[in-house]
Amino acid sequence: MKPVHAGIIEPGHFHFAVAGEPVIYLQLRLFYTHKGVEKRFETVPLNHGIFLAESVSGDTSFGHGLAYCLALERAAGVEAAAHARLARVILLELERIYNHTADIGAIATDVGFVIANSHATRLREQMLRLNEELTGSRLLRGLLQPGGLRRPIEAQRLAPVLEKLDSFGREFRGLLDLIENSDSTRDRLETTGTLPPAKARDLGIAGVAGRASGQHLDVRRDHPFDGYRQFQPRVPVFSEGDVLHRMRVRAEEVLDSLALIRAAAAELPEGPAESPLPEIAPGTTALSAVEGWRGEILHWIRMGENGRLDRCRIKDPSLNNWPALVEAIQGNIIPDFPVINKSFNLSYSGTDR
Amino acid sequence: MLNILCKSLGTGLVTIGDPIGSFNPPPAWRGTPRFDFASWRDACPAAAACPIGAVAVLDSGASRQVKVDYGLCIFCGECAEACPEPAVRMERELEPPALCRQDLILSAKYEIDSEGMQTRLAEGPVRAASPGSVERTGAAVRHAVHKILGRSLAIREVDAGSCNGCEVEIHALNNPLYDLERYGIHFVASPRHADMLLVTGPVTRNLELALLKTWRATPDPKVVVAVGACGISGGIFGRNYAVRGAVDEVVPVDVYVPGCPPRPESLLYGIPLAVGRLAPGREALRPAGEREK
Ligand code: SF4
Ligand code: SF4
User: Fold this and answer.
1) Interchain proximity A58–B263, CB inside 8 Å
2) DSSP single-letter state for residue B193
3) How many other C-beta atoms are found inside a 10 Å radius of the C-beta of residue A303?
């Protein structure tokens, strides 16, 4: 399949070797969307770099933005303001919810359960609107800033959002029931695209895909940042490693995110949203890790002269996980490729940068 | 089966009324920066705050040129925040899509005093009329799609290097709330079936050829819509060793939809605008590289 894929998705080149229907081997050719982002970071002032970080992978705007902020804060030796630390938990989990919801719907479509997808896209739109209600941007953009947030999240803005999240939670459970109770759907998802735990460990598979294949990894728990020092997520881990369980990891995480948001909102302190970021000495390096909705996002920076970065390195979890797709597809039939691919849903732009 | 039915009935109708004709901006939306050029005293704070130079100031002697480019703007609101004057504000209105790249650029000339304050607006910003003349209501769109295209508009989405934020919003067009299909508009898998290419992203060097080939594979007559700041101008990624730049540097573009990403309402404004350009008798355009030959 050539770089321009069918459907509204990003470009990449997939080379299949097949024996009739079953796939023997898949070769990936990526980096079509390479945009020189890391180089670009070296030319923009630090406070403008956040906008670039939010464009590394659009569906992970907040995750990448947060990783960038944390790296700068670490380099400067400061913590974000108390209000921002908890507000960031709320926003990062909102991003997780809308993306996981969309993925669950997309997995359902790819096995022909279109009604479930209609519900899922409707719920996702609800979430995008909640994002906007809270931050002014449907993709949670333009709120982060090194040292905290540009604007605080006021209690009167948060209250109605929490209420709507409750009703979202009820609807989301309904969606899960719909999918889990459909035998034909479950039948298509079970044992499809299996990635055994041993392979997942050897390949260093991260995030959702890793947890569905027995990898007990979650940056929020293992290397807590910001508000996650206070609120620990429950980390769902399965050993089956098939499409069904990648979907179940997402489902459980959405439910857990809802609980995390509620807990963080209850404790959200008033006060300034940002703490000042002191000057960072040239040559300082820092590494940050954030558990985005796909998995662990790493940003590494080295400070340069006149307030610009000298070098940075960005790792999206997709970079870890592409080899998982190659493993999982082997032995499956070509018509199952879309659903297996969707169950990983990796970011091309995040990989290619 | 029964529970599927129950869920559907329980949900009821969620499709929103004609989103093309009536945009009701959500209260928290950040909006669009608007500039009151006549009363503006100093454009420098806004220009310094803008993360991608959508507000640009050029001083030469006692005159200053101020340029605002909605084709670059990512609608972040930093300019309004940084400008102490009320001359820059975020207004709750959509920046309309444009038929020509120049229509997204406002340019004004000022006289400045020794402190760098703008004392007189010497040359007002000229702005092409908004393409409001195009039929905007849903009924008219459906009519146009029926009349010109025989009931259906087929769109091929081409990601020419986007960050996938634009794809998030294009996906949203298909959800039951916006429900693009009600206008007879749908997304197709192959450019050979398409009437319209919806192109996102700054065109990367690695995708330049793919975009051109996709464009060639689309049968005439066809229209191209450049989506988002990146598609219009290269946006936040600008131009570098890996990025070729704007979509119109590679293939001819009919409609430019500003935003980062553009709201679904903006897309729903731009797509019919392009349909209007598909009228019979339209001459075939040629890609940028071939135009001079
Ligand atoms: S809203 Fe547009 S013009 Fe204003 S600072 Fe942001 S990008 Fe620049
Ligand atoms: S316009 Fe914005 S959302 Fe669209 S591709 Fe560019 S950076 Fe991403």
Assistant:
1) no
2) G
3) 22
Chain B touched by A34 (CB under 8 Å)? yes
Q: Is the CB of B88 under 6 A from ligand 1?
A: no
Q: What are residue B227's DSSP bridge partners?
A: B200, B257
For residues A342-353, one letter each, b for 16 or more C-beta atoms within 10 angstroms of the residue's C-beta and e for the rest, the string is bbbbbbbbbbbb
Cα–Cα distance, A208 to A63 (Å, whole number) = 15
Q: What 3 state SS string does A123-145 have?
A: HHHHHHHHHHHHHCCCCCCCCEE
3-state secondary structure of A302: strand
**CB neighbour list of residue A130: distance below 8 Å, 6 or more residues apart:** A94, A161, A164, A165, A168
In a mutational test of the B interface, the residue from A8, A64, A314 whose CB has the highest number of chain B CBs within 10 Å is A8
Q: Which two tokens stand for residue A304?
A: 């340069």
β-strands A296-303, A285-291: how paired?
A: antiparallel
Among A2, A29, A33, A179, most B C-beta atoms within 10 A, so best to mutate, is: A33
pTM for the whole thing?
A: 0.89
What is the dihedral angle through the alpha carbons of B179, A179, A341, A95, rounded to the nearest 10 degrees? 70
If DSSP codes are grouped into helix, strand and coil, which group holds residue A31? coil
- Written as tens digits, the pLDDT of chain A (353 aa) is 467 777 777 888 888 888 888 888 888 888 888 988 998 988 888 888 899 999 998 899 999 999 999 999 999 888 888 889 899 999 999 999 999 999 999 998 888 888 888 889 999 999 999 999 888 889 999 889 888 888 888 888 888 999 899 999 998 998 888 888 888 888 888 888 888 999 888 998 988 999 999 888 888 888 888 888 888 888 889 988 889 999 999 999 999 999 999 998 888 888 788 888 888 888 889 999 999 899 999 999 998 888 888 899 999 999 889 998 888 888 888 888 888 888 888 888 888 88
Ligand 2 pocket, Cβ-based, cut-off 6 angstroms: A 55, 58; B 162-163, 165-166, 200-201, 228-230, 235-236, 260-261
**CB crowding A252-262: b at 16 or more within 10 Å, else e:** bbbbbbbebbb
- The shortest C-alpha distance from B242 to chain A (Å) reads 5
Which residue, among B222, B229, B273, B280, has the nearest Cα to B252 in the 3D structure? B222
* Structure tokens that stand for A285 in this block: 């390096």
Q: Do the chains contact at B167 and A178, CB–CB below 8 Å?
A: no
Residues of chain B contacting A9 with CB distance shorter than 8 Å: 159, 167
d(CA B164, CA B291) in angstroms, rounded, equals: 30
Ligand nearest, relative to CA of residue A64 = 2
Domain A45-315 falls in which CATH fold?
Answer: Cytochrome-c3 Hydrogenase; chain B (1.10.645)
Beta B255-257 vs B223-227: how paired, if at all? parallel
Residues 6+ apart with CB under 8 A from B39: B85, B86, B87
Q: Contact B266/B258 with Cβ under 8 angstroms?
A: yes
